[in-house]
């Protein structure tokens, strides 16, 4: 009589008696055929998974009992994962008491690992042949490199598949397994074929291990394309499960703590599922160029049902506001549970999720914020803004835009598909802005190629180059049909930022914090010969108008200055400084407008506007000031409390025009967190948080979120409405740390009137 069992890491360890004979039938039937499966009560039932169904043969013929049989396989998980830098993955060390999960082996390619196999009798070279089989995918094939058969040898075989006898004692053999540094990542199945060499016929027995081997990229292996030769950088870009994502404006940069959580127990299964859903074949799943491009595609939802739905409308009914997320864990957990895109994300959320996925798979990754980030829609390498002479933007012509900031990712890898010298950091962008090869994705694009204007190298170089180094052209349209223009060469791509790697805080931080400015990795200094050469080189491959740079010198200098440290709810002023550099009188006619703006550059309501007429004598200077009160802007603000100052000025005598746009962000109060500096595993501790409501109106629908990898899975705490000037307080909350190590606890706050607020603290878990 035969029975069928599901073989997966959530099943009990005692379902199969390995002392019996098993005949493997490779029936890759989805789990919708539930009648064929045993299910542990309360265990996770994964309808997406495909497994080998094993037929248990209870009647072993007497003649077959000579065949060597596997009694037990020990993956030496604790020792192997420590050597492979995968011991932070929660599935490698399942907590005691969880009877529905078993510890799993997670290793990195190109690096050997040891396994122990115990047989029912001693292995004999004269009597027995052993084949070790490693397979990946639904249809493993030798020709595709997805089915590998190894025989035992006594030699090391680095950089290739191999199996060496490390030691042998009685019925047990310790084997060292070697893997190449370019094999597909994913879940590999492990099998053993035992063949008894009989004079008449060869009798065969197959053992199929019930748990897969999780195979990852290896930044520690010099022969892996993702090799990163710096331990501090590997600690940050692969092993750090928390970090910061920057937002705001170039003059007011604000860090947002983020829980990447790449070692959570569900994360590897979720990431491998995404790669399988992407349509990427296993044959190329070992190439980080292909994998990172698919990551940028599968993180967004528009054309492939990926992780996140983008929403820039300001209306988030039916989902979560992008401003309310403080980590990737809740997002990916919801996606994995429902297999439906999660609502909603914006650029920093897409970037945070990409960082989590890439680091989980072993690709070094960092989140990158570009301030004054251009969105070039026509491939001209210029950002064209059109204005009327009244100072109002002609929105029907303004398809290009400059975002206050935009967040994407860099991933580290060699690029054998490009000429020598273009490996290292590569930009990828998961925010669905423009399609590439018909899919919403961007990159990987070599930073070295971008810096030098080599935009034709794959992938999407022209679009990403424009984001950091486009020139801005203001076109002013007069009622009589005349058009004048102003070229601005240094307004795009400022203060490109990422979190400083671990161990470099004292030497490379900006302003004493942990922000690293990497602008020089993307572009040469503004207006330098190299930078202008890169722009011209990129322009040769673009639709750049030939006369854009044919602009006369200006003899009136205008500078717009606004404060960058205004607390929301407070007044501010904007100052125009004007200098006449000519030897004759000049008349300046200008319109100065303060306007609420989305961080993507999309304008919202006008806050205040003033028209100015200023006469300046030869070589004279002047100053004009416009004051803005809280009553002018409160009630009009959108998500990130950003205001754009637009200046449109013309010089009557010379027809010179001057256009300038500058954005600033009203700052929000910091959250004060009270938590212990150090705690013990499984020892309860408390957290409190508070801040003062700076608005003249109450805060409603208030909610704190607390989370931290290894400390606390994301939890929401609702509080009552907070009156103006009152304290918003998270009362003492009790949490229990799950794992030891240096941890980050992140507290964020969201309400209808005030959101996008977060802070973090360090906690050592012993």
UniProtKB/TrEMBL annotation:
Q: Transmembrane ranges?
A: none
Catalyses: L-glutaminyl-[protein] + L-lysyl-[protein] = [protein]-L-lysyl-N(6)-5-L-glutamyl-[protein] + NH4(+)
Cofactor binding notes: Binds 1 Ca(2+) ion per subunit.
One Pfam family hit: Transglut_core
- What Gene3D superfamilies would the database entry show? Immunoglobulins, Transglutaminase-like
Q: Which positions in this protein are listed as binding Ca(2+)?
A: 469, 471, 526, 531
Q: Which keywords has UniProt assigned to this entry?
A: Acyltransferase, Calcium, Metal-binding, Transferase
Q: Where is the Transglutaminase-like domain?
A: 339-432
Q: Which residues form a coiled coil?
A: none
EC top class, as a word? transferase
Q: Which cofactor does it need?
A: Ca(2+)
Q: Write out the GO MF terms.
A: metal ion binding; protein-glutamine gamma-glutamyltransferase activity
Catalytic-site annotation from UniProt: 347, 406, 429
Its Enzyme Commission number? 2.3.2.13
Family membership noted in the UniProt record:
Belongs to the transglutaminase superfamily. Transglutaminase family.
What is the protein name given in its UniProt record?
A: protein-glutamine gamma-glutamyltransferase
Organism equals Owenia fusiformis (Polychaete worm)
């Amino acid at each position: 009589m035969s029975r069928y069992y599901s073989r997966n890491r959530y099943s009990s360890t005692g379902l199969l008696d390995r002392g019996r004979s098993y005949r493997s039938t490779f029936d890759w039937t989805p789990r919708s055929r539930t009648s064929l499966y045993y299910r542990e009560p309360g265990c996770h039932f994964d309808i997406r998974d495909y497994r080998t169904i094993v037929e248990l043969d209870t009647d072993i013929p007497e003649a077959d009992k000579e065949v060597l049989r596997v009694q037990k396989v020990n993956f030496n998980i604790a020792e192997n994962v420590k050597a492979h830098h995968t011991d932070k993955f929660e599935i490698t060390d399942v907590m005691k008491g969880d009877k529905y999960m078993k510890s799993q082996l997670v290793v990195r390619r190109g690096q050997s690992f040891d396994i122990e196999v115990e047989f029912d009798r001693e292995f004999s070279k004269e009597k027995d042949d052993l084949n070790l089989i490693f397979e990946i995918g639904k249809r493993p094939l030798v020709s595709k490199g997805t089915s590998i058969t190894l025989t035992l040898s006594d030699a090391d075989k680095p950089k290739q598949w191999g199996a060496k006898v490390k030691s042998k004692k009685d019925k047990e053999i310790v084997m060292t397994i070697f893997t190449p540094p370019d094999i597909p990542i994913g879940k590999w199945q492990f099998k053993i074929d035992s063949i008894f060499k009989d004079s008449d016929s060869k009798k065969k027995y197959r053992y199929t291990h019930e748990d897969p081997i999780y195979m990852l990229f290896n930044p520690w292996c010099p022969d892996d394309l993702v090799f990163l030769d710096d331990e501090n950088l590997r600690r940050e870009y692969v092993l750090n499960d928390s970090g910061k994502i920057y937002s705001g404006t170039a003059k007011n940069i604000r860090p947002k703590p983020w829980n990447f959580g790449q070692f959570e127990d569900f994360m590897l299964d979720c990431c491998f599922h995404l790669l399988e859903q992407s349509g990427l074949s296993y044959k190329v799943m070992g190439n980080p160029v292909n994998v990172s491009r698919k990551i940028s595609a599968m993180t967004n939802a528009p054309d492939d049902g990926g992780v996140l739905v983008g929403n820039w409308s300001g209306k988030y009914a039916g989902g979560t506001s992008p401003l309310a997320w403080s980590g990737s864990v809740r997002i990916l957990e919801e996606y994995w549970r429902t297999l439906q895109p999660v609502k909603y994300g914006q650029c920093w959320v897409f970037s945070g999720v990409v960082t989590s996925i890439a680091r989980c798979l072993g690709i070094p990754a960092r989140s990158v914020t570009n301030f004054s980030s251009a969105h070039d829609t026509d491939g001209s390498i210029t950002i064209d803004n059109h204005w009327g002479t009244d100072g109002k933007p002609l929105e029907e012509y303004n398809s290009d835009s400059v975002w206050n900031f935009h967040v994407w990712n860099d991933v580290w890898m060699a690029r054998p598909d490009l000429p020598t010298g273009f490996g290292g950091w590569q930009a990828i962008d998961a925010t669905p802005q423009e399609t590439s090869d018909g899919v919403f994705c961007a990159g990987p694009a070599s930073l070295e190629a971008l810096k030098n204007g080599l935009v034709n190298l794959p992938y999407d170089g022209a679009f990403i180059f424009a984001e950091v180094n486009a020139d801005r052209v203001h076109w002013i349209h007069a009622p009589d049909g005349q058009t004048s223009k102003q070229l601005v060469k240094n307004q795009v791509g400022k203060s490109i930022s990422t979190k400083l790697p671990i161990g470099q805080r004292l030497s490379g931080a900006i302003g004493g914090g942990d922000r690293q400015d990497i602008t020089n990795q993307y572009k040469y200094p503004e207006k330098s010969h190299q930078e202008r050469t890169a722009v011209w080189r990129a322009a040769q491959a673009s639709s750049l108008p030939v006369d854009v740079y044919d602009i006369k010198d200006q003899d009136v200098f205008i500078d717009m200055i606004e404060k960058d440290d205004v607390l929301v709810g407070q007044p501010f002023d904007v100052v125009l400084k004007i200098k006449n550099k000519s030897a004759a009188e000049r008349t300046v006619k200008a319109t100065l407008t303060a306007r609420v703006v989305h961080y993507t550059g999309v304008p919202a309501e006008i806050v205040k506007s003033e028209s100015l007429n200023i006469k300046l004598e030869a070589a004279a200077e002047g100053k004009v000031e416009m004051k803005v009160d809280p009553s002018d802007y409160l009630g009009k603000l959108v998500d990130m409390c950003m205001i754009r100052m637009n200046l449109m000025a013309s010089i009557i005598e010379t027809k010179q025009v001057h256009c300038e746009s500058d954005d600033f962000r009203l700052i929000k109060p910091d959250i004060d967190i009270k938590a212990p500096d150090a705690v013990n595993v499984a020892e309860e501790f408390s957290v409190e948080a508070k801040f003062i409501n700076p608005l003249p109106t109450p805060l409603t629908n208030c909610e704190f979120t607390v989370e931290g990898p290894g400390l606390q899975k994301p939890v929401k705490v609702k509080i009552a409405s907070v009156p103006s000037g009152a304290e918003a307080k998270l009362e003492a909350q009790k949490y229990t740390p799950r794992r030891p190590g240096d941890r980050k606890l992140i507290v964020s706050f969201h309400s209808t009137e005030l959101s996008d607020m977060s802070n973090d603290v360090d906690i050592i878990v012993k």
